[in-house]
Every structure is written in C-alpha cells, then in structure tokens.
Amino acid sequence: MEQTIFLKKEQHQLKTDLHFDFCGISKTLPFHSFGPAIRQNYILHIVMEGKGTYQVKNQQYHLKKGDLFLIRPGDSTFYLADGEEPWMYCWLSFGGSAADEIIRHSQFKDDQYTMISSDIQKYIDVILACLPFAEETLENELHLNELTYRFLAALLADGGKIHLGEQKIYSPLAVETVEYIESHYADQLTVEGIAQHLAVNRSHLSRVFRNHMAISIRDYILGVRINRAAFLLSMTDESVEHVAEQVGFNSLVVFSRMFKKLTGETATTYRKRMKNEDFKNVSLNELKQKLEKQAIVNRAT
User: Fold this and answer.
1) Distance CA 68, CA 89 (A)
2) Known SMART domains for this protein (predicted)?
3) Could you read off the pLDDT of 203-217 as tens digits, one per residue?
4) First to last CA, the chain
5) Class assignment of domain 170-272?
C-alpha cells in the first residue's frame, strides 16, 4: 500500500532516440510490494527515505536512502518495503534507441542493477521539474524529453559505486515456472497445464514453487496479471474490458472483483487516480504533505 504522485506521457508525438515515459514519487506503508512484473522500458528508482529489498533474476538487494535501483526492459522484478522503516522513493521511466547505449556507459553496465549514489538530490530535482508538464502538448513533450537527458546526464556523472546484492538460489524448476508464466500470463493458464508443459508432476511443481517463491502458482499468476493490468490502465486509454482481456481474463466481472481484491480500489477509480494534478512550482516538502493527506492505496508503482 502506498501514496503516490504520478505523471505519465499518454502518447509520443515525436520519434526520438530517447523519450520520457512516466515519473513519480511514492510514500509506501510497511511491507508494500510491487511485482512480480515485467516493464517494457527502463525505470530508475531513487530511494529517498527508509529501506526495502529489490529482487531481480537470482539477486536480492537490501537498499536504503541514497541507493538507486534499475528496472530493465523484459526483466521480471519484485520489490518490497521494510516492515519497520518503509521506503519513500521517486522514479523516472524512459525508452528509445539511445537508452541501451546510455545505460551501458553508466554504473549500470555489465548487467548491474543497483548502486549507491553520491548525490540523490540531482535526480529528485529533475523529477520535480517534470511534474508541471502534465498537459499533452508537443512543447511539454520536448521539455520532458530534455529533462530525461538531464536525468541521465546526472547518472553518467554520478560518482557513486555499485551496490552488490546477495545471491539467492532458486530451484531451476521454480525459475522455469516463473519464466513460463511471465511469457504466457495472457493465456488461459492452469497449474496442470504448466506442469504438463514442464513435464513434471503437478503436486511436485506446486510444492517446489511455494517453497522457493513463498506463494502459490495460482496467486503468482493472479499477481502478474493484476500488476500488468494496473500498468495498462495507467499508461493507456484502452477500455477496462480490453485491458482485462489482454491480461488473461475472459470475464470483466471476475477481473473487476480480483482487481478490487488485490488493490483495494476499482479499475476505474485506479485509472482516475493516476490522472495527474497541477504541480507547478511545488516543492518536495509540499509534495510530501500532499502524500500525507492522500488516501492510502495498494499497488500502483
């Protein structure tokens, strides 16, 4: 559960080598989690306060104020706020043909995912500067793209160091199951069907998966679908019914019930909440006050 201020670019009018997608700031509650989820573009998070963990591939990272963590396109990731000191973080998402090359020149080269920054304020300042440009105009798109270049220039100039994670050993069967679900979540998946595809006993598969992932296969599939649906609701104007179909639900009624159960709000309410307010000339302290007054909601970012 979290409180969030969010700005997204509805559509790109220009084809550029680097473009802005969305940014935001979240104040999370204890044990707030996001994922497992796969993103289509890069997202760089900056931990502003508190602590949490970030899991990607077979690595687990314990992060605190001053740390950065990168989500790469196509990677399944999961992150969790600390139970006693939940984190507050901000983030910026970007894509384009130049994004890979820029990341390769940063501290995140060679498949690195986290780092300790020498100065997080420069990233925060750029994200705050993005918030006033919510209106969908070509001029604002240019401003947001320019700020994305500035954001990544700060990353290249950052004198911080790589943050090493802990090796987390998963069962190869659990990893295969995750990969299969992430690739086929829109299909009519069943535990029996997955077991047949992997040529293993259904009971054995269920037991191994729960032991390694601390969640049932059915609940994992549901989490992946709802997280993907939340992303589509926030980033597109597609109908709720179409979003439900894209993430594997045949019934809008069932999708609506599951979305409400997992997030605490309806899909329509979630989409409306993600519509940005006017944040011109708002300071970080003022944003924190807005977050304090905001209703608490489940998974958003």
Assistant:
1) 9
2) HTH_ARAC (SM00342)
3) 999 999 888 776 789
4) 10
5) mainly alpha
